[in-house]
Write a structure and sequence with these properties.
Radius of gyration of chain B: 23 Å
Distance between the termini of chain B: 37 Å
Largest sheet of chain B: 2 strands, antiparallel
Largest interface: A-B, 42 and 40 residues
Strand order of the largest sheet of chain B: 1-2
CATH class of chain B: Mainly Alpha
Oligomer: heterodimer
Strand content of chain A: under 5%
Number of strands of chain B: 2
Order of helices and strands of chain A: HHHHHHH
Helix content of chain A: over 70%
Shape of chain A: elongated
CATH superfamily of chain A: Cytochrome c oxidase, subunit III, four-helix bundle
Helix content of chain B: 55-70%
CATH topology of chain A: Four Helix Bundle (Hemerythrin (Met), subunit A)
Shape of chain B: globular
Order of helices and strands of chain B: HHHHHHHHHHHHHHEHHEH
Radius of gyration of chain A: 19 Å
Chain lengths: 199, 539
């Protein structure tokens, strides 16, 4: 491999390796979930019923839509459609912001009911309930941080598309950022059923 | 840093025309990054050595000697954190890996040079955060480097910041791993097929996979400790339904494979040095390369052997014990192959070879004592004693540490264009070797007799052996100082080092000394194996 040509395959390989590390990071949280679910099935069931299915389902749709926009932006830049690419990236970031806003509403409602880490209500309640909501805040919080990081990366690539650093001939950075975005989406696809649906 | 640039000349030291500190700390040249890593890890190594000497000094006699019990707790914690996260884990891969790996593959740099620089910066930032945590907040952490809950969630010392620093260091380690895997897959020169990759680079390949797959687990675990302390999630708090044993599982899912992040590159160094100084092709090339992958794979499934006494089912103990024994097989394959390589070879006992030979002996002792710990029945007896401390120092320092110095004596002259003097190197090595065994073998005996680890005080019957161990630490440190002083002086002002005096057949010996920034004037075409001395045309 000569040093003069850009190795897009190599760049994507590196990104995939990084995505492995993200999966393993969330894997740690899911391990805790599975262990504590077997230990406190009843409390997990009761806790899951307290989560708002409407918020959760809306957010799933919002995030899936954002992933669709992200995927379309890659096709758009490959066709050389700069304005369309920018519009789609804007749509992705917009969806991310809506997701975060809904998450904010959901968390505030929980806080309002006295359910937050280390709250007197959780300390007084059964141990399994405290563990369930501890995991809920940890998992959705960690995921939320990833949504924020992903949005910042999207905005950064949008600037590079605007300046035509990224274009039809060289767009592997955009492709890598969308790969990251799909991972953020994918993690949510697992969080949603585990916390909102199956319990 | 400016001193070195003033004395070392030629090649990548000067051919870019850039000077000053900015040409180093913002350089994407893998050689400059490798050297910066080297300076950092060596500095932290000396800090760790100093703390270790203080621990031994405290234990020279029963009862309070030089520090309070709280300071003693901080000493062994910080000694562990510094030595593990700031010295051994980045030690060989990030410093010598960066220096040597791209050249051994026939590449001009790693796959992602800017990520490489970023990873060095993360290392520095993480290290600074760890250092700041020692002097701020509630004082230096006193949990031991393992940060076990529930104590780490409750102690008033500055655990949160230290743990956050280690989190950043993990990021740095992951990025180096990703860089190396991609480099090895994508940047090999024409003709450099998988069976021509030098064994040092092979070992880094296995290491990099462990870095990628294991480090995220420690990241989330440490994050959990921080959230436990700051938000009080209660996930490891038994009174709130959490389980502290889950912390131990998650901690060791990373930290046992991390042991192989530490030792595999050392084994790679030895695999490169033994054939050169035996004037013989390596015996069993494919098996050594394969055994690196086997160690990485098997070593990822043995974490439970740290927890035999923590509360685990008998079946779990047996399974983990069995898997632990499996790791011994690829390790032994390597040792036998090194010894077979030397058989009927024309062995020349120069400094790199002496360090390599002592590696084989010390690693074997450490590995065999590891089997005593891996067997559940004997582990119950020696668990959490000085036997464990002796064991992992045999593997980590006797193994990786000695390999680190072997690599320094073998490769650094190539990069500085000057060499150290042989005689002080050998004197230093002799002192290190003697002091090492006096110190750590005594620890193993102490452990067998029942002296617990991490205790501030001990029974009077352990006094004599503790005195012996402490004296051993002085002999060893004297050796380390001589070796480092000799390297420092030789590499800056010593005799010029040119060509290929040791007759290595890997690619780094085919380019000018010091290597130019671009490594190769033309992309090399590889026509012979890494230990095919005839094919490489070296006598």
């Amino acid at each position: 491999m000569s040093h003069l040509e850009k190795d897009t395959f190599g760049a994507k390989l590196g990104m995939w390796l990084f995505l492995f590390t993200e999966i393993l990071l969330f894997g740690g949280v899911f391990i805790l979930y599975s262990v504590y679910l077997t230990r406190y099935p009843r409390e997990f069931g009761l806790g899951g019923k307290q989560l708002d299915l409407v918020y959760g389902a809306t957010n799933t749709v919002v995030l899936l839509t954002s992933s669709l926009f992200a995927a379309m932006s890659v096709t758009a830049i490959k066709r050389g459609a700069k304005k369309v690419t920018l519009g789609l990236l804007g749509g992705t970031i917009g969806c991310a912001l809506i997701f975060l806003f809904i998450k904010y509403l959901e968390w505030s409602a929980k806080f309002h009911h006295g359910i937050y880490p280390n709250s007197p209500k959780l300390i007084a309640g059964p141990p399994g309930e405290s563990v369930f909501f501890g995991l809920y805040y940890l998992t959705t919080g960690l995921h939320g941080i990833h949504v924020i990081i992903g949005s910042v990366l999207m905005a950064w690539t949008a600037v590079m598309v605007q300046r035509e650093v990224l274009h039809a001939g060289d767009n592997v950075t955009l492709e890598n950022v969308t790969l990251y975005w799909h991972l953020v989406d994918l993690v949510w696809i697992f969080i949603f059923p585990l916390y909102y649906l199956i319990l | 840093m400016s001193q070195e640039t003033a004395t070392a000349e030629g090649g990548f030291w000067s051919d870019s025309g850039k000077t000053g500190i900015g040409s180093w700390i913002f350089s994407t040249d893998h050689k400059r990054i490798g050297l910066m890593y080297l300076y950092c890890v060596l500095s932290f190594f000396m800090v760790g050595v100093l703390l270790g000497v203080l621990i031994r000094l405290e234990l020279i006699a029963p009862g309070p000697t030089i520090v309070t019990a709280q300071t003693y707790n901080a000493l062994f914690t910080v000694h562990g954190v510094v030595m593990i996260f700031l010295f051994i884990i980045p030690g060989i891969p990030a410093s010598f890996g960066n220096l040597v790996l791209p050249i051994q593959l026939g590449a001009r740099d790693v796959a992602f040079p800017r990520v490489n620089l970023f990873s060095w910066w993360l290392y520095v930032i993480g290290a600074v955060i760890v250092l700041v945590s020692l002097f701020t907040g509630g004082g230096a952490p006193d949990t031991g480097w393992t940060f076990y809950v529930p104590f780490s969630a409750r102690t008033t010392t500055n655990v949160s910041l230290a743990v956050f620093g280690v989190f950043i260091l993990g990021f740095s380690s992951i990025l180096t791993g990703i860089n190396f895997v991609t480099t090895i897959h994508r940047m090999r020169a024409p003709g450099m097929n998988w069976t021509r990759i030098p064994l040092f680079t092979w070992s880094l390949y296995a290491t990099a996979w462990v870095q990628i797959l294991a480090t995220p687990i420690i990241a989330i675990t440490l994050l959990l400790v921080v959230t436990e302390r700051i938000l009080g999630l209660g996930l490891f708090d038994p009174s709130r339904g959490g389980d502290p044993i889950m912390f131990q599982h998650m901690f060791w899912i990373y930290s046992h494979p991390a042991v192989y992040i530490m030792i595999l590159p050392g084994m790679g160094v030895i695999s490169d040095i033994i054939p050169v100084f035996s004037r013989k092709p390596i015996f069993g090339y494919k098996m050594i390369a394969f055994s690196s992958l086997a160690i990485a794979a098997a070593g990822s499934a043995v974490w439970g052997h740290h927890m035999y006494t923590s509360g685990m089912s008998d079946l779990g103990v047996m399974v983990f014990s069995f898997l632990t024994f499996l790791v011994a097989i690829p390790s032994a394959i390597k040792v036998f192959n090194w010894v077979s390589t030397m058989y009927k070879g024309s062995i020349s006992l120069e400094a790199p070879m002496l360090f390599a030979l002592s590696f084989i002996l010390l690693f074997s002792i450490g590995g065999l004592s590891g089997l005593i710990l891996g067997a559940a029945s004997t582990d119950i007896h020696v668990h959490d004693t000085h036997f464990v401390v002796g064991h992992f120092h045999y593997v980590m320092f006797g193994g990786t540490g000695f390999a680190f110095f072997a690599a320094a004596h073998y490769w650094l002259p190539k990069y500085f264009g000057r060499r150290y003097e042989e005689k002080p190197a050998i004197i230093g090595w002799v002192l290190m070797f003697i002091g090492f065994n006096v110190l750590y073998f005594t620890m193993q005996v102490l452990g067998m007799e029942g002296m617990p680890r991490r205790y501030y005080d001990y029974l009077p019957e352990f006094a004599r052996l503790n005195l012996v161990a402490t004296v051993g630490s002085w002999i060893m440190v004297a050796g380390i100082l001589i070796v480092l002083w000799n390297l420092w002086r030789g590499l800056l002002k010593g005799e010029p080092f040119t060509g290929n005096p040791w007759g290595g057949a890997t690619l780094e010996w085919s380019i000018p000394t010091p290597p130019p920034t671009e490594n190769f004037e033309e992309d090399p075409v590889v026509t012979h194996g890494p230990y095919d001395f005839k094919g490489a045309g070296v006598p």
